[in-house]
From TrEMBL:
Species for this entry: Chaetomium tenue
Protein name (Swiss-Prot/TrEMBL): Uncharacterized protein
Taxonomic lineage: Eukaryota, Fungi, Dikarya, Ascomycota, Pezizomycotina
Amino acid sequence: MAAPAETASGTPAAPSAEDLKVYELTQKYTAEAAKRFRPEGLDQFVRLRESGSARFRALAEDPWVDHAALNTKPLVPDGAQHKFIILGAGYGGLIYAVRLIEAGLASGPDDIRFVDAAGGFGGTWWWNRYPGLHCDIESYSYMPLLEETGYVPSKKYATGAELLEYAELLAKKWELHDKALFRATVKATRWDEKAQLWDVEVTEGRGPGEASRELTLKGQYVLVVSGILTTPHVPKIPELENFAGPIFHTARWDYNVSGGTPKDATLTGLEGKRVGILGTGATAIQAVPRLAKYAKELYVFQRTPSVVSWRGQRETDPEEWKTKIVRGKGWQRERRLNQDLYLMDSVEEGQENMVGDGWTEFRSFSAVVGSSKYPIVEPTPEKIMEHVGRLYKLDAPQSEKMRARVESIVNDPETAAKLKAWYPVWCKRPTFSDEYLQTFNQPNVHLVDTDGKGVDAATTSGLVVAGKEYPLDILILSTGYVTPSIGGGSPAVRTGIDIYGRGGRSLDEKWNTQGASTLHGVATHGFPNLFFAPLSQSSQSSNNAFTLDIGGEHIVHIIEKAEAKVGGNAIAEVTSEAEEAWALEIMKRAGWFATVMGCTPGYITSEGEALRQSSDPMEMAKKARGGNWSQGIHTFLALLEEYRADGQIKGIDVVSRTA
């Protein structure tokens, strides 16, 4: 909280009514967060594919893949060499490939090779096909490369099915289908000093009854674009695997159980059934209204409620598209930046709100995406307290409005009280729906609030909360993914790939020893020709497609200039001096993110692990290094553009492989 002002005599002024109200609110937030802290942190979850239960490991399998069709395609040879190996074939991987092609860096038939565990393009939109699925950022800003394709989204918020089809459209337009190795898990990536290439060790699945293949691909460049929410996990609830009814994760929806299809949410398989859904995050917000329509009884198990703002879904108006949205060259970036200016609390008076959605009302979200409106926060207790207090004051009216919205929609006061979120909006990704809260007015829908404690245990016939068993026929796990900030944001940890650079040094070991170490969040010393999607030491947006596009643009520029310097066949490597200088810039700005210290546990705080205080100066420094640019994505973009302007790619050593 901000320190009290002083009177003319130098004595502290009495706190204002606003100060007192915000203080009381923070006390409530602290009490609610304390209920949810668990000493085991991230260890309270297990990744489905690493579970000791064969049943849970099976839940991680790809339910959408067409093994027969993929097995008719020519085998990718063991030892095949490619100029670019892109790990990930979602929107990020597609953006990077298109940027490489458009820059003239990947013109040969074998220059690009995607490697992805899924059975096709799409990333999160391949895996997630649950009923009610839409993007939570408006389509016109979220869907990448709309200018290049001329595609017109059907709705302001595209459905998951449309987003998956659009990934296919991108792959078709840039002729990428024959460049993908699907059903492939990357085990390790190793720099071969002698060949001056990367060895990418891959296990390719071939489907039931077929032996998997082990192969090593060789790449001049490796681009790690494996997404940030790709590894589903489940809480370690005692006896959960022994539940007798059907059970599945929302990231691997089972329409054989529910009925319907990804394009037809007629969930006749739920009729007459008692259905439980565990979790109330962004996925459940979308799925619950569809489940409620068909289930005989729906039980929604909640540990922490979500902030639920309005959505305002509508069809795309052709006239609006032509006259108000597409405004000439660069319209999509302009629109993306405009939305982020509102999120960063950096708009100028009278500035147009191009997007006009619920996101743009959450200006206190600047706590996690930064702002150019305010100076760098000095790392003193007084300045940090002042900064945190200002953001709490900025957040309080909107958070109160969101809690009042619950009361205005949900008829039962007791249920409404349990659906109110008691934390600042930046602590968990806010959600948007004009249906979710209304669902709790239906007589067949029951909120089972665990008061922050979570589910006690499972039985063969249901879940137990506070000693009471709730009988279920079907259980749906809407329990999220491994946090992207795991391992301090290490690209290796968050993707589950062992990465070894010069001298066999592990990228994980470097992150554990030094903390995050990059230039602009996309490359690191000792790992030549390795680039990764920005996370730590970059700038972030609520719109991940925008972040990926900025990262891809920057990486392609670096590669393009490196190749030009030596006439092709380049080895580009960040210098240790450059990454340390960049780390200092990030550390200077670390005080901005002190606001997360009051957050409830969740993926933003690595289930509370990021909030643990250490008196070790080295650990404190590593935590500060793992932060992001705190002055907003538009100033970060301007910084990158200034860096690129002279074409020198300062801070990157470039030599030729043939030198």
